[in-house]
């Protein structure tokens, strides 16, 4: 029996943006397989590519994520059938050319073919490097180490212990106040902690010098009784700590004595180590922030050591992490960054390597995908290189004629062309006839010009923002006149991160208006606290009653059924001090747990008090919900429910909520009747478009890869 082809994507949570280059990788490998030097995409894996019957790309010109979520209920087929959904960066004039790797092929003026034609070899997009967060943060020029030490503002933002800060009373100051220069000595520091009745306490400390020599490696007796040794990560056991006499104060004194007055400490998320050590040091390089990522996300030390240094650390065969090994790895990473400079580091393309590594872990045949192999060839003096030969040329050489249908100018590539005056209906009729016979097809649907007028789209955007705000908002009350606001905030905070809380005094008795940061939190508050007793009052919890919210319950139900949320649950009420490692340990007993995503505040970069758990099977997700909710009955702070919004939607909601207020004010006013008619007509057209995609999809052969693109207009 023929094995079915399938696509596996390793992106989860906020790691859900893919570039045009990555779409090109997918299409090239799907169309050509291992012939013509095509390799598996770096960010996903196609199983049994040789059994693919064909590839179909449906391009919805002028349409974007805004259209998809504004008219979410109308896109019934798309949201129920297409399992994987990713963000694309802004479109460009040569969008289609980028899709299959040729800028020349769709240029109507490029009719002459000669030996210098670029149709079979495409230049790498040089602007990719400029968009890299490392380049945006540090520039391309190589600098000394003082450029990479954290500023006072960065220390404060990332919870580093500082003189005069709340909670740092009694902390020991290293008194390393001498002016730092680019020749100041670097020291790597790492600690392992156990969970005690007091919280996280240091149980092992390591310090290495700039040559990697271990200066200190010491076990430490915690002050309070140990609740969880976290042996899997810390390597600490009860037996190991029994004979230890060294106390935290002893370690503080030794560290202070060992560090010269211009010392620069290096570590990975060093704030946690210094907090546990209860020490304040003014000059640090934090490798979790040095190797910058977008929107506050961070690379793990284990990944950076492998990808940048080629070193394996924190191996599964060992019990617990070795703090000396981790301190040395962080130090060497900082030294590599300083010596090579930001441009060389950005050229490593760490985001691509990360998705490759994740996929390697997911793949049933790990040898098929090895980090830094197949998809990426690392040059001595340049960035990873990807083959950019136009795969459509290769297809034609093998006798396969790609099909292009839609409103595009004719080109010289030999592709079949649609009529410029074709309507979406005519394009569909042609596609139903020709696409099943072609191995590679691009089908383009478009909106009429009047439906993409900027001022009308701006109004739709504002409406979506208002609706999202209303969905994130709940009203609770009535409360007694003397109610405790702190108690209310604490109770509602257990449902998820709160963006704002306001007391309403216009009513006879006080009410509170709470705006959450995630949809699941607001829904959890409505489901679990409506009719509950909070701050001594039996309260009602409800969302705002507005015209846009009349279909809110329907929308929530459909978001729950969205195929992308299958097997994903939301958990709230987490302690903010818990790390991803802590949570993996806490949820390790849950069956079939595949991935854990701990969202960060996109402005501050700090962890929120909630997470998302993804399971291999939807039944396991249902079981996990029951287990976690049973914990709540027995006194746990945790609350959970099915997920409503995938990672890319969470990020988009945040962007909509924090969009430029001036820009909102500049939106042109539109006559209400004209606006209503426009929206009603657009709703019908998009519903019809969804039905057309459904018809075409049903006509495809089994084992056909189908990709739908919303390129947008800006």
TrEMBL record:
Annotated region Disordered: where?
107-126
Q: Which GO terms describe its cellular component?
A: nucleus
Q: Which residues form the RRM domain?
A: 472-546, 567-645
**Annotated keywords:** Exonuclease, Hydrolase, Nuclease, RNA-binding
- Tell me, what is one Gene Ontology molecular-function annotation carried by this entry? RNA binding
The family database entries (InterPro entries) matched by this protein are listed as: Nucleotide-bd_a/b_plait_sf (IPR012677), RBD_domain_sf (IPR035979), REX1-like_exo (IPR034922), REXO1/3/4-like (IPR047021), Ribonucl_H (IPR013520), RNaseH-like_sf (IPR012337), RNaseH_sf (IPR036397), RRM_dom (IPR000504)
Q: Under what name is this protein listed?
A: REXO5 exonuclease
Q: What organism is listed for this UniProt entry?
A: Nothoprocta pentlandii
């Amino acid at each position: 029996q023929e094995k079915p082809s399938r696509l596996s994507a390793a992106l989860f949570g906020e790691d859900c943006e893919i570039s045009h280059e990555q779409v090109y990788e997918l299409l090239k490998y799907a169309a050509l397989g291992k012939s013509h030097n095509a390799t598996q995409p770096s960010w996903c894996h196609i199983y049994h590519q040789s059994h693919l019957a064909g590839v179909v790309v449906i391009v919805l010109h002028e349409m974007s994520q805004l259209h998809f979520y504004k008219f979410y209920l109308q896109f019934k087929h798309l949201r129920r059938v297409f399992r994987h959904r990713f963000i694309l960066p802004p479109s460009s004039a040569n969008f289609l050319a980028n899709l299959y790797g040729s800028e020349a092929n769709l240029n109507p003026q490029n009719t002459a073919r000669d030996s210098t034609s670029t149709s079979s070899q495409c230049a790498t997009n040089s602007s990719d490097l400029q968009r890299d967060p490392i380049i945006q943060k540090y520039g391309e020029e190589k600098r000394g180490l003082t450029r990479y030490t954290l500023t006072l503002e960065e220390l404060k933002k990332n919870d580093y212990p500082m003189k005069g800060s709340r909670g740092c009373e009694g902390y020991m100051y290293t008194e390393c106040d001498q002016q730092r220069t680019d020749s100041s000595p670097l020291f790597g520091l790492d600690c392992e902690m156990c969970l005690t009745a007091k919280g996280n306490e240091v149980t092992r400390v390591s310090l290495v010098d700039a040559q990697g020599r271990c200066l200190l490696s010491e076990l430490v007796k915690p002050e309070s009784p140990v609740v969880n040794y976290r042996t899997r990560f810390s390597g600490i056991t009860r037996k190991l700590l029994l004979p230890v006499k060294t106390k935290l104060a002893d370690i503080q004194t030794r560290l202070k004595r060992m560090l010269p007055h211009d010392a620069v400490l290096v570590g990975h998320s060093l704030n946690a180590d210094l907090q546990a050590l209860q020490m304040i040091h003014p000059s640090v390089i934090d490798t979790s922030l040095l190797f910058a990522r977008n929107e506050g996300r961070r690379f793990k030390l284990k990944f950076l050591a492998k990808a940048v240094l080629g070193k394996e650390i924190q191996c599964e065969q060992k019990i617990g992490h070795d703090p000396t090994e981790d301190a040395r790895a962080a130090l060497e990473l900082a030294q590599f960054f300083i010596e090579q400079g930001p441009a060389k580091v950005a050229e490593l393309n760490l985001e691509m390597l990360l998705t490759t590594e994740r996929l390697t872990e997911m793949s049933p045949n790990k040898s098929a995908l090895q980090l830094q192999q197949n998809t990426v060839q690392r040059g001595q003096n340049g960035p990873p290189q990807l083959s950019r030969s136009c795969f459509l040329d290769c297809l034609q050489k093998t006798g396969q004629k790609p099909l292009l249908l839609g409103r595009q100018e004719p080109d010289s590539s030999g592709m079949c062309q649609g009529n410029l005056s074709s309507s979406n209906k005519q394009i569909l009729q042609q596609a139903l006839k020709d696409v099943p016979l072609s191995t590679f097809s691009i089908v383009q649907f478009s909106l009429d010009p009047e439906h993409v007028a900027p001022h009308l789209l701006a109004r739709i955007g504002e409406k979506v923002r208002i609706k999202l705000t209303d969905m994130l908002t709940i009203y609770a009350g009535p409360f007694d006149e003397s109610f405790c606001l702190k108690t209310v905030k604490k109770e509602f905070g257990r449902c998820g991160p709160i963006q704002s809380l306001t007391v309403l005094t216009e009513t006879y008795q006080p009410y509170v208006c709470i705006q959450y940061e995630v949809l699941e939190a607001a829904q959890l508050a409505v489901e679990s606290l409506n009719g509950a007793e909070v701050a001594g009052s039996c309260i009602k919890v409800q969302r705002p009653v507005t015209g846009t919210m009349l279909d809110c319950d329907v929308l929530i139900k459909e978001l729950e059924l969205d195929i992308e949320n299958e097997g994903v649950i939301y958990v709230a009420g987490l302690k903010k001090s818990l790390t991803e490692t802590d949570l993996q340990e806490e949820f390790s007993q849950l069956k079939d747990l595949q991935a854990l995503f701990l969202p960060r505040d996109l402005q501050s970069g700090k962890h929120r008090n909630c997470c998302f758990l993804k399971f291999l099977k939807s039944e396991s997700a249902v079981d996990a919900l029951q287990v976690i909710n049973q914990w709540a009955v027995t006194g746990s702070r945790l609350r959970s429910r099915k997920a409503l919004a995938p990672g890319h939607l969470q990020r988009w909601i945040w962007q909509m909520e924090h969009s430029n207020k001036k820009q909102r004010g500049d939106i042109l006013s539109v006559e209400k009747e004209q606006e209503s008619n426009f929206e009603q007509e657009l709703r019908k057209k998009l519903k019809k478009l969804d039905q057309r995609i459904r018809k075409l999809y049903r006509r495809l052969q089994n084992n056909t890869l189908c990709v739908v693109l919303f390129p947008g207009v800006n």
